[in-house]
């Protein structure tokens, strides 16, 4: 049965967006064809007024990390029943408020995990083998002039510390093991279904690793967890890759360690105050910088759009949601 | 027994170098401590005259791809017994002339294979996920201004064609398989000990692949093997990584295909006329350029130096060489 045949009136298929998630921006036509998209970001009204003007009708919000769904937003939409997130993490949504009001949240499951893990490995190889810095050396015309370029470091045999052995961390571990690395990890609890070595905290992990790959969620416990002490425990030839959230690292202390030569190199996809990157980093050759893009591939954006559309379609036709997020105390 | 105790007179431990191999340049002290190094490159004499001045005594030459050991060089050194190469390949040595004169050749076995394979994977991820181009975007200050950056391509599920499934190619295959790629290959002969799909030539491989990773030796058969026809068979979203030798690709035809958008992107460590890189490539964002450095890590240079020193020590103490290269018809 084609859902188009029994389409509800368009005013009952309203989807409100505060700021367009990247997946929506790329595949907007798919959404516009099937749903009435209410764009707060295109309205001249202040957000609060825009939300109140749809207070009685809007049952669905589509969102991502680019704009949090706060308790205030939720209270402005008393008819809200569903928050559809185009991200895997839901730390940009006030889950307690959703729980209180019986609002369901869906995410896109682990559709981006392989991409983020691939990019983490790419960043690690890049820092170790100086790929981006070498490309700059060649493009700057220096090869015929100076000839020499500093040696890189070998990947095989290095002790990799994975911070957070979840969907992404475990994929990074598998990939680096195939390159001859020795993998250990830290996480809230020791995992019994993995062959990798457990350390009870990030400092112990750093003391026993040549590199840290940060793959954990940002929580009150993990904020600024990678600080001056942890960085120095990793040591002067240590490498840090962060594909999780910028605030897991104390960025000021990281910059100081980079400038002082207290760490070998870093590959960063995320920063504390995106899109702003500390200016000292821009001059350093042992730093590789991405604009928060490790999840951004054509294929995964297509897959994520399909999950979002399927969740929306399921909601409006009273069928089971594909990827609801557990939301219990 | 410490070899120092029975050291031969220094004039019998002469090692002649035409141009310093990179491994020697980094670890020169190790060599100078044990052997009398005769540096043609430091002499005001023309090479021929320098060689003739040591014609009666020099039994060993240390070399690498930076300066070929031609039949002329060999004929200038009638006492020559051993050519020690700091590379794995020996295409820079006139092997036929060595055979005729009973000169043994040693290489460094596969000490660099893991490093080259790691860098090949790094180049592939970089091109697919736009790491170097994104770093340039961030360093150029564009992130806060334009915000958007083009999507990359997913690694998992891609059909990888390995050109030459030897020590390096098989390591690249293992690594990319761990990332979810489907690997096939071409080589002179089908290999029976591998699970990967065989194609009889590079054109068939290109027709059935999303990317080519070139890992084969440069021979008369492989020179310009990757030409316009092969590149177009790979297609407009195809990717080529070359960590072998520049001349395996017809560089003029590759540049044309890049400029015309007939190929998705390339990652190149090697070029036809090193250190010169075609200027059109320097402006392209879908190209990653390394200065022939995929083998260059501190760890492997150290290991390679140990192999070179051990071969030299073995020769001067009449012990079996570690890594002689088979040199038969």
From TrEMBL, chains A, B:
CDD domains: HPPR
Entry superkingdom: Eukaryota
Keywords associated with the record: NAD, NADP, Oxidoreductase
D-isomer specific 2-hydroxyacid dehydrogenase catalytic domain segment(s): 27-325
Keyword NADP appears in the UniProt entry: yes
SUPFAM superfamilies, per the entry: Formate/glycerate dehydrogenase catalytic domain-like, NAD(P)-binding Rossmann-fold domains
GO molecular function: glyoxylate reductase (NADPH) activity; hydroxypyruvate reductase [NAD(P)H] activity; NAD binding
InterPro entries per the UniProt record, alphabetical: D-isomer_2-hydroxyacid_DH, D-isomer_2_OHA_DH_cat_dom, D-isomer_DH_CS1, D-isomer_DH_NAD-bd, NAD(P)-bd_dom_sf
First and last residue of the signal peptide: none
Domain D-isomer specific 2-hydroxyacid dehydrogenase NAD-binding: 122-292
Example of a GO cellular component annotation carried by this entry: cytosol
Family: Belongs to the D-isomer specific 2-hydroxyacid dehydrogenase family.
Protein name: Uncharacterized protein
Originating species: Lactuca sativa (Garden lettuce)
């Amino acid at each position: 049965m084609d859902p188009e045949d029994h389409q509800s009136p368009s005013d009952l298929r309203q989807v409100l967006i505060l700021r367009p998630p990247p997946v929506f921006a790329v595949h907007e036509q798919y959404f516009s064809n099937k749903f009435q998209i209410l764009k707060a970001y295109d309205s001249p009204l202040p957000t609060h007024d825009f939300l109140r003007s749809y207070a009685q009708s809007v049952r669905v919000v589509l969102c991502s990390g680019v704009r949090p769904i706060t308790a205030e937003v939720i209270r402005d939409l008393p008819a809200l029943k569903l928050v559809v997130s185009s991200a895997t993490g839901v730390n940009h949504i006030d889950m307690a408020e959703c729980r209180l009001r019986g609002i369901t949240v869906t995410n896109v499951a682990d559709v981006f995990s392989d991409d983020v893990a691939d990019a983490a490995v790419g960043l690690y190889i890049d820092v170790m083998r100086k790929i981006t810095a070498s490309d700059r050396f060649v493009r700057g015309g220096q090869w015929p002039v100076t000839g020499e370029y500093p040696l890189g470091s070998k990947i095989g045999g290095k002790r990799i510390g994975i911070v957070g052995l979840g969907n992404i961390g475990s994929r990074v571990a598998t990939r680096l093991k195939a390159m001859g690395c020795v993998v250990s990890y830290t996480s809230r609890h020791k995992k019994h279904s993995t062959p990798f070595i457990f350390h009870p905290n990030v400092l112990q992990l750093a003391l026993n690793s040549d590199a840290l790959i940060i793959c954990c969620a940002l929580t009150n416990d993990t904020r600024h967890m990678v600080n001056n002490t942890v960085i120095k425990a990793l040591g002067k030839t240590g490498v840090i890759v962060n594909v999780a959230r910028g605030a897991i690292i104390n960025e000021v202390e990281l910059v100081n360690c980079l400038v002082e030569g207290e760490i070998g190199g870093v590959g960063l996809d995320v920063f504390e105050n995106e899109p702003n990157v500390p200016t000292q980093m821009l001059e350093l050759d042992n730093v590789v910088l991405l604009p928060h893009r490790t999840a951004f591939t054509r294929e995964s954006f297509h897959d994520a759009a399909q999950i979002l559309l399927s969740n929306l379609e399921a909601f409006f036709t009273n069928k089971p949601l594909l990827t609801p997020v557990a939301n219990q105390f």
